[in-house]
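Appendix B, Record 12. Input sequence as logged:
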Amino acid sequence: MRPLNIGLSEEQRQGVTDLLNRDLSDAYLLLIKTKKYHWDVVGPQFRSLHTLWQEHYEALTENIDAIAERIRMLGGYPLGTAKGFLEYASISEDAGSLPNAYGMVENLVADHEHVIRNLRDHIDQCGEKYHDQGTADFLTGLMEQHEEMAWMLRSFIEGQSIDPDGRLSAEGMRVPVEMK
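Logged structural output:
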């Protein structure tokens, strides 16, 4: 292959590729979990969650392809095996459990928020450590999509505390965002 001459050293490109493969792995596990919940959700929220999760897994599928293509643009190779995704992912597979609809939403919120925190770190590393502003910008776009998905899912959970008359129930109320 012809050597790349895009203003990044081999070491910089390899560092960014490693970060992107981690993001790719998390995206794959999140896609699998979202599809599983899409198939298995039951109850009064079935239709709304089934539809929302289809929107989410379609977006995740596009993002997975975009991440893999970004890796190739940098001269790297994306992971492409379940074993590789499981080794590189920072979120868990959640095999063997089937929570109720509320639990499914809570699990997905936690995963999206975890991915968002990782992406923030990877954005900083891409820009500051590896001097790859293009990938930092690319990851910012992905992070914003995960922020929107997490917001949609959190809104579902927060809606569980609204009484039929439209007033917020004090019982079981959660602080919407916890800063750590």
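The mean pLDDT is 90.
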